[in-house]
Description:
Blueprint lengths: L1 H16 L6 E10 L3 E9 L4 E9 L4 E6 L27 E5 L2 E8 L2 E6 L15 E10 L2 H22 L13 H13 L1
Amino acid sequence: MLKKNFRWLAAVVFLLGAPITAQASVYSIVFDGAVFDVNALITTDGADLVTAISGTVTGPNGATISGPEPVSNSGIDYNFDNLFFSSPIHVTFGGIVFDAGGFSYNLYADGGNYLLSTINPTGDQSSPNWNPGDLGTLSVTAVPEPSTWAMMTLGFLAIGLTAYVVATDFSSHKFFQRKAAPEAAFLIMRGLSD
């Protein structure tokens, strides 16, 4: 019986400890500028390319973000690469381009400064927010993946199960009701060999 339980335990430990590579990462970002604020969730693939962005832009003509511009559109209004990195500096000089309320926005880094360039409110490059853009700060927080939540839940369940087993009254178990010490020692040795 002990060997059987040990095999199950070994299988569970192996599966939980098996390396799982993250295919996507999700970040919560907050850009706080003088004219515009952006509060969004950014999803990247394994190569740091932005695959999705959702959230809001507040400020003149503020609106809900409808998604990232495809990199194939680079060079039309902006030269961008849609790369986002987990460590500072989070975006390149090309930056990330996304749409909100019919306007394009480019979140980019120039040295250690973050800027949000946009054609809002004029709709073209004569916008006062076009070049260099709205200077601001960028706060980034990683959002745990569902697999992380699952592992934490399994860990808490294991801790709870262990506490339950330890708190159970073992004195009612028939093994502990035996009187003869040599027989109990034999049963203990036999139990370890099963």
